[in-house]
Design goal:
The protein has helices at about 10-20, 45-55, 60-70, 80-95, 145-160, 175-180, 195-210, 215-230, 235-250, 305-315, 335-345, 355-380, 385-395, 450-470, 495-505, 540-570, 580-590, 590-595, 600-605, 610-625; strands at about 25-30, 35-45, 75-80, 105, 110-115, 125, 135, 255, 265-270, 275-285, 285-295, 325, 350, 405-410, 420-425, 430, 435-440, 485-490, 510-515, 520-525. The chain is an alpha+beta fold. The protein has five domains: about 10-100, GIY-YIG endonuclease (3-Layer(aba) Sandwich), CATH 3.40.1440.10; about 110-255, no CATH class; about 265-380, Nucleotidyltransferase, domain 5 (2-Layer Sandwich), CATH 3.30.420; about 390-545, UvrC, RNAse H endonuclease domain (Nucleotidyltransferase, domain 5, 2-Layer Sandwich); about 575-645, 5' to 3' exonuclease, C-terminal subdomain (DNA polymerase, domain 1), CATH 1.10.150.20. The strands form four sheets. Strands 4, 8, 9, 10, 11, 12 and 13 form a seven-stranded mixed beta sheet that branches.
Length: about 650
């Protein structure tokens, strides 16, 4: 190898390894001197492909030349064939996120809809696809988190599927509110939907999620006619309502083909290192959905190559692969990708570049939408910081505008759980996916300062642990290692002092401020007096929005825990009564109040409750009346005025 080649100055072991790579299909990983993966590629012959990089005059691409200048090591993995190499390449790109590869910009898992594998399946959202016998539908766009929720609500309205986690035994005394608002067919009660009826609901929901609306509509029409002929007018009316909902949905969907084909339509727009792929989902000849996916690493990459990289990464996670994918130009390695997609689908898949007609117009429309989304993203990213962010920069005398602000709040209600929240804003916009919540572990009593110190210490301890793992090149997704530019606290000087102690302990030079309740005074380190900004000051309004959002998020978690505790609080303290027995009692009696009125013999009749446990439950509830003073079965009333604090239940309520 010539000395003027890009690796002419490399260590001999690398030169020898490149010259002696196997001539088999596989994947290669190019690394820098620190062992970081710079690029992942696939090849039908590893030796021929990798050696090309180091031959003089092989390329004039600045991107590839810059990559070659940084390569210090090459690692290879031999695969059985090109399809296996294609799959491994996509997996390694997602794991390492190499700088020189085209990659999906969002590092979070895509959401899916899941019909669980159980006698009475429920419809839920998940981000993991497992081989558990369940049916998965998706992926759905990660940038539209409310879309999955809207789809679940639509499924429940049309097909009455449950979302609860209870075991269906048909013996509950009454259904929950979902039945009365038309969101569930109540298989939990004896008179609700039986296994056959519920199974039909699940089948129809699966048909709907697969986009087979026309076939489902004909099926519903036939069932409605049969129910009317059998004089079952109640069922006929329910089927009529389903049909109307389905027809209203179809009216909003654009018909693009009379042939009823299933296909995906893709196009890409890219500028610099950013790109957008627009996808139209056509099912049964109708556009049933669309989404756009942000990409990184597109600088110097041809659009066709970008689409090829996207196809492998996106459809690796997809649960449905259509028989046809339309693209604006020929894709590299098209035959290999088609074989892989065919294996995933269980049938032939064609990647087609249409030249004329409706299909070509749809591809052009996808390209226009991709360019529009890219321009909108560029405007959002490049629009500069808002006035509130700039005013904060001036207020705190920062060298540059703060990007990330983390706000912390404590929710500490008497008689309830004590929790804390962390909400995040970047560029003045909240990022709900970055929110975190905490249950207090060490702070005792209503000491807000101590609790703030605890939650901050836990937040930055996790950041240190995660950063240590990243420094060891462990393949993890950062959740805590991204540090804020400003720490905002709901409180006053005490909370600010606690924050400074924690930040000093973890050696972070991050400015912290506190926003006091009431007059909304801003406490800043180093100032003897708090700052009072005008009510219309952009910085104050930004801080107020974050403080209120943190308060809302903490209260929501607090109420969730408190509600959970209220349901079982009276049973939690009884020795030997675990989660399974508590649920059996609630299922049998309906409420703790009814258990209080039952005899020991009645309690012993519950499945899984023995005579000894029944007597223990009976005696405990008799000795511990509830917060309202309702008597136990022997007439025990509330404690008298001279009763001590231990005269009531440990939580003060049933």
């Amino acid at each position: 190898m010539s000395q003027d080649s890009p690796i002419g100055t490399q260590a001999p072991p690398l030169t020898e390894r490149v010259a002696n790579l196997p001539a088999q299909p596989g994947v290669y990983l190019m690394k820098d001197g620190a062992g970081r993966v710079l690029y992942v590629g696939k090849a039908s012959s590893l030796r021929a492909r990798v050696r090309q990089y180091f031959q003089p005059g092989h390329t004039d691409s600045p991107r590839i030349l810059h990559l070659i200048s940084k390569i210090r090591d090459v690692e290879t993995v031999v695969c059985a064939n090109e399809v296996e190499a294609l799959i491994l390449e996509a997996t390694l790109i997602k794991r390492h996120r190499p700088w020189y590869n085209v990659r999906l910009a969002d590092d979070k898992s895509y959401p899916y809809l899941k019909l669980t594998n159980e006698p009475f399946p429920k419809i839920v959202m998940t981000r993991k696809v497992a081989r558990d016998g369940a049916k998965y539908f998706g992926p759905y766009p990660y940038h539209e988190p409310k879309l999955v929720g809207r789809t679940i609500r639509l499924i429940r309205r049309l097909f009455k599927l449950r979302t609860c986690n209870i075991e269906i035994t048909h013996d509950l005394p009454r259904p929950c509110l979902d039945y009365y608002i038309g969101q569930c067919s109540a298989p939990c009660v004896a008179w609700g939907a039986n296994a056959e009826q519920y199974g039909e609901q699940v089948r129809q929901a699966a048909e709907f999620l697969n986009g087979r609306h026309d076939a489902l509509r004909k099926d519903l029409e036939a069932q409605m006619t049969a129910a009317a002929d059998a004089l079952d007018f109640e069922r006929a009316a329910a089927l009529r309502d389903q049909l109307r909902g389905l027809e209203a949905l179809q009216e909003r969907q654009r018909m693009v083909s009379e042939g009823g084909e299933d296909r995906d339509i893709l196009a890409v727009a890219q500028e610099g290192d950013a790109g957008v792929v627009q996808i139209f989902l056509v099912r049964g000849g109708r556009v049933t959905g669309q989404e756009h996916v942000m990409l990184q690493g597109t600088r110097g990459v041809a659009p066709a190559e970008t689409l090829g990289a996207f196809l492998t990464q996106f459809y690796e996670a997809a649960t449905v692969v259509p028989p046809e994918i339309l693209v604006p130009e020929p894709i590299p390695d098209r035959e290999v990708i088609e074989r892989w997609l065919g294996e995933r689908r269980g049938g032939r898949v064609h990647i087609v570049q249409p030249q004329r007609g409706d299909r070509a117009r749809l591809v052009a429309l996808a390209r226009d939408n991709a360019a529009l989304h890219l321009a909108q993203e560029a405007a959002r990213q490049g629009g500069g910081p808002g006035p509130g962010v700039l005013e904060l920069q001036s207020l705190l005398r920062l060298e540059s505008p703060p990007v990330r602000v983390e706000c912390f709040d404590i929710s500490n209600f008497h008689g309830g759980e004590t929790v804390a929240s962390m909400v995040v804003a970047e560029g003045g916009r909240v990022k709900p996916r970055e929110y975190r919540r905490f249950k207090m572990k060490t702070a005792e009593g209503p000491d807000d300062v101590a609790m703030m110190r605890e939650v901050l210490a836990r937040r930055f301890a996790r950041a240190r642990e995660e950063q240590d793992r990243l420094d060891r090149d462990e393949p993890i997704r950062p959740k805590w290692a991204v540090l804020p530019d400003i720490v905002l606290l709901d409180g006053g000087r005490g909370q600010l002092s606690a924050a400074r102690d924690v930040l000093f302990e973890y050696n972070h030079m991050i400015p912290a401020i506190a926003l006091a309740k009431g007059q909304d005074l801003i406490y800043v380190e180093g100032l003897s007096e708090p700052i009072a900004l005008p009510a219309d000051a952009p910085a104050l309004q930004l801080l107020q929005r974050l403080r209120d959002e943190a308060h809302r998020f903490a209260n929501a978690y607090h109420q969730q825990l408190r509600g959970r505790r209220i349901v079982f609080s009276a049973l939690d303290e009884i020795p030997g009564i675990g989660e399974r027995r508590k649920r059996a009692l609630i299922r049998h009696f309906g409420s703790v109040r009814n258990i209080r009125q039952a005899s020991a013999a009645d309690i012993a009749a519950v499945e899984g409750i023995g005579t000894v446990q029944a007597e223990r439950i009976y005696q405990y509830l008799r000795d511990h009346p509830d917060a309202a003073g309702r008597p136990g079965p022997d007439g025990a009333g509330p404690p008298g005025p001279d009763a001590g604090p231990d005269s009531r239940g440990p939580n003060g309520s049933a």
